[in-house]
Amino acid sequence: MGRSFYHFLMTYRDPVKHDSKTNFANAAYKDHSFPKQAKNYHILSDYLELNAPYLNGMATFDELFDEYMLDEEKNR
């Protein structure tokens, strides 16, 4: 049934780039409480809104989650 959002997000990790998507991925990697198996938007957004001071607004998450859903749909 496809990969989790976290595994999708990890494709954006990069030690050199510093755009918002890369910063989010790098910070989520260091967040040991991140819901790594979650695929549900509401579970992820609730977690991020309450526990992710490293995310400056939800727009980056929303954009990445849309990309994740498109990627999952393409790989079905």
Number of helices: 4
What gyration radius follows from the Cα positions, in whole Å?
A: 12 Å
Q: Say what the CATH topology is.
A: DNA polymerase, domain 1
CATH class reads: Mainly Alpha
Principal-axes geometry comes out as globular
Q: What distance lies between the first and last C-alpha atoms, to the nearest angstrom?
A: 8 Å
CATH architecture annotation: Orthogonal Bundle
Sequence of secondary-structure elements: HHHH
Count structural domains. 1
Counted beta strands: 0
Domain YozE SAM-like: 4-69
Family: Belongs to the UPF0346 family.
Protein name: UPF0346 protein X560_0158
Pfam families: YozE_SAM_like (PF06855)
Question: What keywords describe this structure?
Answer:
single chain; 76 residues; mainly alpha; DNA polymerase, domain 1; 4 helices; 57% helix; 0% strand; globular
